[in-house]
Amino acid sequence: MTRPSVPDATPALFQQALEHHQAGRLPEAVEAYGRVLDLDPDHLGAYVNRGAALRRLGQPDAALASYDAAIARDPGFTPAHSNRGNLLQELGRFDEARLALETACAQDPADAAAQNNLGNTLLSQAQPEAALARFDAALAIRPDYAAAHTNRGLALALLRRPEEALASFDRALALAPPDAVTLSGRGQVLLDLQRPDDALPCLEAAVARDPRNPVARMRLGHAQTHLGRPDQALASYETAVALAPGSADAIFNRGLALLALDRFEAGWRDYEFRLATDDFARQAAGLVSADLRAAMGPAPDLAQIAGRSLLVVAEQGLGDTVMFASMLPDLIETAGPVTLLCPPRLTRLFAASFPAVRIAPLGADADLARSVDHVLAIGSLGRLFRNRPDSFPKRPYLTASSAALARWAQRLGPPRTRLRVGLAWRGGVPQTGGRDRSIALTDLRPLLELPDCEFVSLQHGDPAEEIAAMNASLARPIHAFSPQAIDNFEDLAALAQSLDLVVTVQTALVHVAGAVGAPTLAMTRRVAPFRYGRSAPTMPWYGSVSLIRQDETGTWGPVIREVATRLSQPMEAWTLPR
């Protein structure tokens, strides 16, 4: 019997290796590919396939060495570059992965998989626009490439193009059996579109297909939160934390669920993890310098800040900054000198309200962080001072200066017999659910036609056209000042303090009016953020704010009717704190 020649033995061995590989017998496949290479050191397919098997065996260094060996023998062998790039992406070595996949795409522009994988790497590098171009290139080559449609949806979602993202996810689901990534991405986009009822079954299906996917679990928690199911949301976040113990996003969202359930101590502890989330880094980037963000960490214990100099940084939106400022009086009693960095629109109001605190605008932080003992994010004060329901004093803590109050008293003129009501009807932006927490001014006609009320606009922005159109048909027109007149929060606070009552949707005005103790009716969605409490008719933070929530229909009609009923009471019937 003659010994087979090398050329005859190699194909048979390679076929044997493939059979082991396809059957999941990976150690046997690696050994067989090695025997192929012993016979034919230039067998590029054996190098690449051996690398793929080693990758699945959890041996990334050996897999990279196998890919590199193929490239050393033929730098133009595209599959080696492509597989090498995919592995480097898995290892989090995104710059190297991008270079490898760019090489693969340059060598074979018609390789749809390489285009798709390069897009994935670009997504990992927070470059959704460039990633989208690669996914589009992949789909131009293979229009039925389901994974590329899914990835295109992920990129469009990051680019805040939710309608297009939804179409991409739907196309992926039409082309291939549903998978957890597609379902999870689709569910998140439906949440972005303020469609939690549609998102819920989609995310439940994602979790059913991949119960160990922490992102899908977390998004399911978001849907449950939006639908007013905080207990279920908490369970979803707990599972997400168990699956990804180091996920700051999962822990932070668990904290929000705990706060919504009035479990303040545990909630504030988790809330500190917001400082480590990507969302915080993006949102705070426009407010706080990178050096200052790096100086902020979880709040130290009270004993550590006693008598120490502190820099408090307003790292959140205007309304939240006003809300968290309610704890500055507590801080002053404990700490040494306190400096507060806040948005310029708040500096005058805070300076008038907290004479013991040095107030400076955000941006003036070049040397301040180095001159104090501790740097605190203002949202971290909750963990120090608001750990029980009875630790919320609900007392007014802000006031405009006497000069500002005098100016507004003069502008408004002497008191009249009608109830003088401040009004705001729009709040937020699309990313914060502004559409769902705003009311068309025309829908407020039942209030505006009440005979014993006169209305003053407290609406942020420039609502002049809306007001003019409404006033054309009102017996008593809405009184409005220029946008500049109330843009500064001291002027807004002084005007609110000068009125009999404030009626507003969920916006920063709720916090300003509550902080100065102005009687306020806040019209809220059926499911409101933790700041508003779970279901009580008042907020934990303010004694003068009454909440009128949507009922289970989620519509504004019953809310408006209730506000009209309350405004119809005689002025002397009002018993809200002044």
Q: What is the approximate shape?
A: elongated
* Biggest sheet, spatial arrangement of strands: 6-5-7-8-9
Radius of gyration: 30 Å
Alpha plus pi helix count: 29
CATH class of one domain: Alpha Beta
Residue windows where pLDDT falls under 50 for at least 5 positions: 1-6
CATH architecture of one domain: 3-Layer(aba) Sandwich
Number of strands: 9
| Beginning-to-end CA distance, first to last residue | 107 Å
Helix content: 40-55%
Instruction: Please identify which CATH superfamily of one domain we are dealing with.
Output: Glycogen Phosphorylase B
Mean pLDDT figure: 92
CATH topology of one domain: Rossmann fold
Strand content: 5-15%
> What does the largest sheet look like?
5 strands, parallel
Provide the structure class: alpha/beta
Question: Would you kindly provide a brief summary of this structure?
Answer:
The chain has helices at 6-22, 26-39, 44-56, 60-73, 78-90, 94-107, 112-124, 128-141, 146-158, 162-175, 180-192, 196-209, 214-226, 230-243, 248-260, 264-271, 278-285, 290-295, 302-305, 318-324, 328-334, 344-353, 381-385, 402-412, 445-448, 464-471, 489-498, 508-516, 557-567; strands spanning 310-313, 338-342, 358-361, 374-377, 419-424, 453-457, 501-505, 520-524, 545-549. It has 578 residues and is an alpha/beta fold.
